[in-house]
Amino acid sequence: MASTIDQSCLYAENHEWIRVQEDLATVGISDYAQDELTDVVYVELPEIGSTFKQGDPFAVVESVKAASDVFLPVAGEIVEVNAALDDTPEAVNDDPYGRGWFVRIRVTDPEELATLMSPEAYASYLQEQG
Amino acid sequence: MSEPIIYELGAPGRCAAHLPKLDVPPSPLPPAHLLRDGLDLPEVSEVDLVRHYVRLSQMNYGVDIGLYPLGSCTMKYNPKANEEAARISDLHNVHPYQPEESVQGNLALMYALQSALAELGGFQAVSLQPAAGAHGELSGILMIRAYHRARGDAQRTVMLIPDSAHGTNPASTSMVGLEAVEVSSDERGNVDLSALTPHLNQRLAGIMLTNPNTLGLFDEHVQEICRRVHEAGGLVYGDGANFNALMGIVKPVQLGFDVMHLNLHKTFSTPHGGGGPGSGPVGAGPALADYLPGPLVARDSGAEGETYRWEIPARSIGRVKSFYGHFGIIVRAYAYICMLGASGLRESSEAAVLAANYLQERLRRTYPLPYPRTCMHEFVLEGRLQGAPGIRALDIAKRLIDYGYHPPTNYFPLIVHEALMIEPTETESKRELDAFADALERIAQEAVDHPEWLHEAPTRAPLRRLDEVRAAKDLVLCWERRDSRDKDGQ
């Protein structure tokens, strides 16, 4: 099952994507992640204004299969959450890089972005995962 | 819905039970003392009632119907002799407030079960209080916390939990207010020793180990893990859910475990649910025996023979359950232990391991086996098949229902993709095991030839494929009368 990789994002090992737009960045989970989770039924999002370190769990995504933590790819402050996921969690499955976004953050330390995978690196990472 | 709810069967005035004629003067309650109006109870005749529940029971699946390979749950057959024992009137026609001297037989039975479990686990003492496995975990973690606090080590709050653990482990840890920290597994399915190292410090409270683990594998470094955790000042909790692999073969305390629960409703053949309840006795080695929840049963030997009494351990975390545990379940488990004896318990574990390995060897030809080692009482396959890209573990599990089997545990443990976790138990004959393996092999072929059969499965179950997404999103916990629903426009 080849999964889609959005070319405008960077990726973390736990299958989160981050898309940087000036000083803000949008975060979600990859197509591979949503496919592994199967049908998403609930997303628990953080408070606006809360801050997290790189790799901290900031959200919980629940599918018919399992409940999983979602980790912030880089440290940041939550400036906006995708409240629409309350009513339509299936957007995470249908459009993981678009309507299925989780949060927008103000990145604390842009240098941390260098630790993430490029779309090409993520593609070969997925190959290794089998 | 093929069978209505019992409220939908009734008609006003119907009644299945007739009370004898009142032969004492009536004494009406003063209206001011009534808490509420009359209850809205179903009104059905006896024949409606009996047929309704018999029809429901025919839709049910249980260990009395067939193989129930639900991994990690040890769905072994529950011998009917256990039920006979639990119905002995001298054992069950007692009240927990009776004085000790009037229930010596009950106490003697509890003492004997404590002793048998202590022998099997190598424990110094056992408490029969906890009402289920996760309750035993909670008790054990409270004991570990109390131990560290008593030693002035309140800063020890980190509990290590392997990534293959049951979800109850981090839940129990969090409920006690300790911090659950995940440690990864290595490529052979053992706890990764190098993942322990950063946590072996003054903050370590302990580790929760399941051995054999949820992959059905005996951890090859279990003694080394216990040694390192002890050297760092931590304690070892044993999740005894998988003890069915070990009876009479391995004593966990000798491996280095300090406290562990046992599931009477798994290993010791008492019923799961629908007649349960569960029971999760907790046993402890020397470091923690004084912290066990109480009361335990103690024995005194005097001139008039042996007498039994309640005793609270010296540093007990206190009671974790009203009264004395689930006594009816304690009787059933003790009956099972007496029937099998020491050698029979060992044979049970050996047969459980043999059955699992037989199935593993047959099925690994068809389904990927991510950790190809000799297994213990269960094993985990991947529900992914060559040439059937759209088929997942869930589809295979659903199709098994059409073949007349309860599906195995799926999507657990989390470290296996599309996990199918199979535990046949010692109950099943080779013929049963072969029939189950045949079904899984046939399903694998169907997945390639007719994938829609798997996507649509089960077709023979009363409600066919359930909408699990809607069930999770729009959970309805209470049945409402249709007329009131109509008013709400539903």
Model description:
The complex is a heterodimer of chains A (130) and B (490). Chain A has 3 helices and 9 strands. Chain A has 130 residues and is an alpha+beta fold. Chain A has a single domain, classed as OB fold (Dihydrolipoamide Acetyltransferase, E2P), CATH 2.40.50. In chain A, the strands form 2 sheets. Chain A has a 6-stranded antiparallel β-sheet. Chain A has a 3-stranded antiparallel β-sheet with strand order 4-6-7. Chain B is α/β, with parallel strands linked by helices and 490 residues long. Chain B folds into 3 domains: 6-59, no CATH class; 81-340, Type I PLP-dependent aspartate aminotransferase-like (Major domain) (Aspartate Aminotransferase, domain 2, 3-Layer(aba) Sandwich), CATH 3.40.640.10; 347-465, Aspartate Aminotransferase, domain 1 (Alpha-Beta Complex). Helix content of chain B is 36%, strand content 11%. Chain B has helices at 6-9, 46-59, 80-86, 89-92, 104-121, 133-150, 168-175, 193-196, 222-231, 252-255, 327-363, 393-402, 430-449, 451-456, 468-473, 482-487, and strands at residues 125-127, 158-162, 179-183, 204-210, 235-239, 259-261, 282-284, 296-302, 305-311, 379-382, 409-410, 419-422. In chain B, the strands form 3 sheets. Chain B has a 7-stranded mixed β-sheet with strand order 1-7-6-5-4-2-3, with helices on both faces. In chain B, helix 9 links the parallel strand 4 and strand 5 (235-239). The longest helix of chain B has 37 residues, at 327-363. The two termini of chain B are 17 Å apart. Mean pLDDT of chain B is 94; it is low at 484-490. At the A-B interface, loops of A face helix 15 of B.
